[in-house]
Write a structure and sequence with these properties.
heterodimer; A: 4-stranded mixed β-sheet; 4-stranded mixed β-sheet; 17% strand; globular; B: 188 residues; alpha+beta; 5 strands
Amino acid sequence: MNDNYHVFSDGRLERHNDTVRLVTDEGEKKYLPIENAEALFLHGQIDYNTRLMSFLNDEGVAAHVFGWNDYYAGSIVPERGQTSGRTLVEQVRSYDDPDSRLSIARAFVAGSIHNMRANVSYYHNRDHDFESVIDELERIGDGLDEAGDVSELMGMEAGARRAYYSTFDAILPEGFVFGGRQYNPPSNEVNSLISFGNSLVYANCVSAIRATALDPAVSFLHEPGERRYSLALDIAEPFKPVLADRVIFRLLNRGQLTTDSFEEDLNACLLTETGRKTFSKAFEETLDRTVEHPRLDRKVSYQYLLRIEAYKLKKHLLTGEPYEPFERWW
Amino acid sequence: MSTETSSIDPVEKLLATARDEALDDEFHVTGVMMQYYEVCERELWFVSRHLEIDRDNVAVVRGTRVDDSAYEGKRRNVSIDGTIAIDVLEDGRVMEVKPSSSLVDPAKLQLCYYLWYLDRVVGVEREGVLAHPTERRQETVELTDERVEWVEESIRGVHRVVTSDTPPPAEEKPFCESCAYHDFCWSC
């Protein structure tokens, strides 16, 4: 269950008997084990027809599409997904109540800062001195209660992220310069990896939200309508440091990705196809990692933590029980 | 719920509504609600809010399958007042089928509610059969005074849970693990 399949080649994706077949432009045929799939991630130029779409719909499998620049372009989401008028009503009601919206938005930021701090502490305890950044993150985290509205919260989050990103150049191996966050297009290798990693986190959040009756377009921290599935942006926030950033550090520090894994294209620095494969593989391995969940009393995968997060938010909206954001506890 | 309606005993209200078609109670106690009440009040609250469950859950899939296939041809489904739907055997006894005997009290309460409803509303006295086809076992259930009290207290309980704005807090039960709401309930 819950496996993601990444397709990098260009070609045609089709229903063949009761499975999905990829026919590459080179004429190679590959079969995807669709019965265990959560979603397909389409990175290459893919042709498909409505027969395939109906089949994916019947099987409850989403298809996430990525553009030439590694950015998330959109999803084809099965219609069979959960719908509940009541959940939507409560979600909108909560969005529309400034106090309620602010408290949910604050939770996303608090979780995000906690998990950024966990990454910085990890490298601080190894061979870096990040004490001032840790203090700064703690100071911002402690001040979240003072934010009077969501835009103030966004400002605090941006400040925390700046402090967090300031550690990257020290963590990353020689040959890689981060400098600061730049996207649209990403200006260097590290920015390119962050963009790609974040878009994978985001697409997995879309899948997780689909399993609940939450409306992916009604969000709390980000403005609804800013992007189509802005709730996925909200939920992705606390997960980026755990799911994307640690993979980036690992791959670069172990030399699994080098400057050869990137190419310049239209003023953008982008991963090569091989580079994308390496990254996606490491990312999927991270999603499959498990951790003992203290309340569920069993091991759950990192990917399932996204589902749990959607459950928690939905439960908060419907029962009023407090929403505690995902904060790395291990 | 306004204070006026909540001051009326739910049992009296249910009986009054069932006997007089001019009255309408928006609150229908179904047999399944009684079952949930006995299993877990929090689950009843979730169900009453139409909170959908994870359809992949193994226990749910199994329960549905047993219910559909067991004793086919020997029972017929009868709906009464649009409130309760019961399975009646050829000999007139009311049957309730459960996938296993592990949750016997909830199934018994559901069955007793049907017997109570038939007796108090329709005016027919019937015997019940609790069947566990996978274990090839049947149990006859009669509506005793004690069970009447059990049913009526449970109707009040269902009413209390369902009209509450918030669900009862999560409570660890031996069968939590197999519940379709498990992860939803215990995620925090």
